[in-house]
Amino acid sequence: MSTQPAIANAAALESVQIRVRGRVQGVGFRPTVWRHAREVGLDGEVLNDGEGVLIRARGQGKDIETLVRRLRDEAPLLAAIEAIEVEPFTGRLAPGFRIIESNRSEARTEISPDAAICPACAAEVLDPFERRFRYAFTNCTHCGPRFTIIRSIPYDRSATTMAAFPVCAECAAEYGDPANRRFHAEPIACHACGPKAQLVRFDGRALTYEQHSMFDDVDAAMSLIQKGEIVAVKALGGYQLACDATRLDTVERLRLLKRREVKPFALMARDLDVIRRFCAVSPDEEEALCSPAAPIVLLDAAGPERLPEAVAPGMRMLGFMLPSTPLHVLMFRRMPRPVIMTSGNLSDEPQAIGDAEAARKLGTITPYALVHDREIANRVDDSVMRVMDGRMRLLRRARGYAPASISLPKGFEDSPDILAYGPEMKATFCLVKEGRAVLSQHQGDLQDAATWDDYRKNLALFRDLFAHDPQALACDMHPEYLSAKLARKRASEDSLALIEVQHHHAHIAACLTENARALDAPRVLGIALDGLGYGTDDTIWGGEFLLCDYRGFQRVGTFRPVAMVGGAAASREPWRNLYAHLTAQMGWAAFAMNFRQLPLFERLAAKPRAVLDTMIHDHINSPLASSCGRLFDAVAAALDVCFERQAYEGEAAARLEAIACPKTLAEEDDSLCYPMPIPVLKGSGLPYIEPLAMWNAILGDLILGTPQPIIAARFHKALARSIVTMAIQLARRDDEDAQPRFDTVALSGGCFQNRILLEQTVRRLEEKKFKVLTHAKVPANDGGVALGQATIAAAHLIDAERTRRKGGTSCALEFPDGS
C-alpha cells in the first residue's frame, strides 16, 4: 500500500476528507482514528460507510499529515488497509472530534474474518477479579466474531446476530469510552446482557450436575469429555464434536457413530506445551497456531508421547489448533490432554449450525451438547495450514481468512464485476469487484445435497453483503459440474456473458494471481497436477504442462493417458488404476511372465479381468485420463496402500507420502530413483511422461524385497525429476542461441499439497535457474480454482472492451497450437 501522495496532499490542506479502504470495519479502526485525531488536535468526525471508513478533519496541515501517517503505521491489529485517499473538504465541521453513525451507502468495503481470542481477553476470562471472569463470549475490537455473525454491512451490532442482546449499562459505558479496548466493539457482551452457554441433552432429559466436578456448564462439558463422553459444542462457525483424544475406545466410538472410517481428526490443545508433547513445532508453525486466524496446523508427530493410531490412521502428521474462542479457553482450563475437535456433522456433510439441526443430526452420536443462544449467521469451517518448502501454506481457506479479499494484479484495474462459480469439489466461488477478488470460504463437495444447498445460500448472501451485480459469469467447462450448470442457467436467465474456463488453466491463473503476476506479463509454464479436470479435447486431464497467461494457454506436455476403469469408481478404488496402468504399459502377459511371483499378481488376477479388459477396449465407462492423482493411487496400490479403496479423497496419496523414507529422500543418489522418459504421443505430438520403466523398476524392487518406504521415496523423487526434465525440454527453442520460451514456472493442483513432491520439484527447478511460483494464501487444490476462473474471465473482458473501443472483434481464450 502506498500512502505518499495522500500524505503530501494532507500536508498542503487545512480541511480534508480522508477515505480509508480495505478491511477497516469491525477491527477498532474508528476509535483508533478518534484517538489519533484528538492527540494531534484536529476537529472533525469519522464514520463507517459502504466504502470503508470516512474521515473529515480540520486543522493545521502538519497535523493532518501526522494523522495520515499514523493511520498507515499504527493501524489496528486486524485491519488491512488497501488505500488512503485525501481530498479537500468544503463542508462545515464542529469543534472537537466525534465518531458518528454509519452511513448505509453501497457496500464496497471488506468484511473482516473472525479473529481468535486476544491475549487480553484470554487473561480476563481467567481472572476472578474481572467482571467477565469465565464469560464464554468475551471479545473486544481486537478479537471475536465477525463474519459468522454478520447479516449485512456496514458492520454494526444491528446488522449482526448480536442485535438480539441489548447491552447493559456497564457494557454501554465501555462501548462509548474511547480509552477502552471495547470502544465500538459491536459484539460486546457480559454475563448480564450477552449470550449464555448451557449444557443440555439432545434427548431433552435432565442432567444430573452433582455427578460432575465443575465451575459452570462450560466446565461441566469438559468434565464429561474427561470421563470418556463425546460432547457436541456450538462453536463460532458451526457445531463441533469433542472427545478425549487419548482414549482409544472413545475415538473408535466417534469414528463409528460419525461414519468417518479413517480420515484424520483435528485436535485442540490447551497450549503449546501440550502440543509439544506430541508434535514438533517450528517457529513458523507456532506463529500460525497463535495468530488471530488460529488455523489447524499440520505438524510432524515427533513429540515424546503418542496418541492412538485411530486419531490419524496411517499419517505421520497431526492437525492441531489452539483454543480460538473464550468458550474453548474456559473448556480447556483444566484439561491437560489433547481433545479431538472435529466438525459436527455426519460423514462429509456440512457442519450443523442450527440448534434443531444439531439435535437431529448429532443426537445419534452423543446425547450431550454445550449450546448457547447466539445464532450462527454464516457457516465457516476451520482453516488448515501446513509448512512446505519453508512457508506456511493454506490447504483449506475458511475461518480466520475468508472472506478477506485479494488484490488483483496490475492490469486488472478496469475489470468489470464478475462472479466465478468455482469447481465441484472443495467448492468456493469468487466475486470480483473494484479490482479486488473476494474468495468464499471452503464449502465442500457439491454432490452432497446439504453442501449444494449451503453453496446456493452463500451465493445469495455474498450478493447481498457486497451489493454485487456481476456483468459476467465464469465457470468450469465441465458439462456436468453442478456449479457450471448453475452458472449457465443464470447466464441464460439474466442475459449475462458466460466465460467457460478450462480447469487446469484456472489452477495456474490462481497461482499467478496470488503471486501478483501482471496481466501483461510474459507467459509462464504452468504445471497443474491433480485428480482430474475436463480437457478441451473432451478427455480427462490431470497432469498438464501449459504455456499460459491469464488470456489463454497452449497445452505443451502431459502425462500418459490411462483408462479410468469404472469412471468415478477409479477415484475410490486404487487397484483399478494399478490394473489400468500395468495393462496399458506392459500388458497382462508381460506382467504375468515377469512378476507372477508377487502377491500383487494374485490379487489383480482375482479381479474380473475379462470385464475390465472389455471396458477398456470398448471405452465403456473408462475414459482416458492424464491424471497425476490416479498415478499416485496406482503406485500406492502396488505398495499395498489402500489397495481396495480410499475412505476419503486423496487418502492413498497422503499415506504414500507418509511412508516415504526421509533418509532415502535426503541421501540416496538420483541414479537409484526410477526412470520416467519423455517420448511423444502419437497423433497429438505432445511430449508426455511415460511411466513404463518406472513400473518395471518398482515391481523389480518388490521382488527384491525393497522396503515400501524406500520405494515410495524413490517414486516421489522420480516424479519430481521427470517434471523438471519436461520443463527444461519445453523451455528450449530450436535456435539454441534464442532466449528460452519461458523463465518462470507456476505450480498448482492438489498433488502439490504433497510436501515431498512440492519441495523436490521447487528445489530442482530453482537449481535449473527457473523462477518458481507456488501457492500459500490460496489453496493449491480446487479451493483456489474460482479465483483463477475470475481472473481469466476478467482478462478476457478487459481485452474485449479494449478491442471494442478500437472497433475490432474480441480475442480468443486459447492460444493456437504452436504459438
Task: Explain the overall architecture.
Pfam families: Acylphosphatase, HypF_C, HypF_C_2, Sua5_yciO_yrdC, zf-HYPF. Residues 215-400 form the YrdC-like domain. This is Carbamoyltransferase HypF. Residues 15-101 form the Acylphosphatase-like domain. This protein has 819 residues and is of the alpha/beta class. α24 (708-731) packs parallel to α25 (755-767). Helices cover 34% and strands 18% of the residues. The model is unreliable at 810-819 (pLDDT under 50). The protein folds into four domains: 4-99, Alpha-Beta Plaits (2-Layer Sandwich), CATH 3.30.70.100; 197-372, DHBP synthase; 403-515 and 781-806, Nucleotidyltransferase, domain 5 (2-Layer Sandwich), CATH 3.30.420; 558-773, Nucleotidyltransferase, domain 5 (2-Layer Sandwich). A hairpin with a 4-residue loop joins β23 and β24.
Give a quick rundown of the structure.
It is built from 26 helices and 29 strands. The protein is an alpha/beta fold and 819 residues long.
Name its key features.
ten-stranded mixed beta sheet; 819 residues; Nucleotidyltransferase, domain 5; single chain; alpha/beta; disordered C terminus; 4 domains; DHBP synthase; 29 strands; Alpha-Beta Plaits; eight-stranded mixed beta sheet
Mean pLDDT across all residues, rounded? 93
**CATH T-level topology of the largest domain:** Nucleotidyltransferase, domain 5
For the largest beta-sheet, the strand count, sense and barrel status come to:
10 strands, mixed
> What is the distance, rounded to the nearest whole angstrom, between the alpha carbons of the first and last residues?
37 Å
What top-tier CATH class of the largest domain fits best?
Alpha Beta
**Backbone structural class:** alpha/beta
Strand arrangement, largest sheet?
6-13-7-8-12-9-11-10-14-15
Weakly predicted, low-confidence segments:
810-819
User: Level of helix content?
Assistant: 25-40%
How does the overall form come out from the CA principal axes? globular
Q: What's the total count of β strands?
A: 29
CATH superfamily of the largest domain: ATPase, nucleotide binding domain
Separate helix tally? 26
- Structural domains: how many: 4
Taking Cα atoms only, what radius of gyration do you get, to the nearest Å? Answer: 28 Å
Can you tell me the CATH architecture of the largest domain? Answer: 2-Layer Sandwich
Sheet-strand content, in percent, reads: 15-25%
